[in-house]
Design brief:
Blueprint lengths: L19 H19 L6 E4 L3 E7 L8 E6 L2 E6 L21 H4 L12 E6 L10 E5 L2 E7 L12
Antiparallel strand pairs: 1-2, 2-7, 3-4, 4-5, 6-7
Length: 159
Amino acid sequence: MCDYNHYIPKDFAGYFQFGPKDIAKMKRMARHFMHGFMGSHLPYNVEDLGDSYLIIIPLAGRTKEEVKVSLLNKHINIRAEKPKVFEKEDSSEKPDGKKSVDDWCGPFFRRSFSFVEVNMDIPLPADADTDTLVSKMANGLLKITMLKKPAKNIDISVN
């Protein structure tokens, strides 16, 4: 018979010897790693319309009061809280005495998305005129338009 006690350190308290500082560091690393997958970044389009630009950001379930748009150093910052989704009433028992689908499948039969809090920056093109920014929210889409600045020609002198 083999005695395993001589392989285990005396101060060994479990499977992993991590202290509270190590666990906090691992949580920060996991949050940083997962931020790109589940964080606040949403896909967006920047379209060149010739004399102007159009930026479209999908913000489903949000109203214009819940979305904040600001401009800072040639970047547009968009902030939006998670939308308020109303919970359905607890009606697991139907009037006829039968149980509902929620009793065997939980509240979601299939869950394909979740709402996230949004805090993202969108860099603007170099020739975007930030004085002409206009934003509109309709049907879950935030649309931001701005004109282009005309290019300034610079004369070349001969020495």
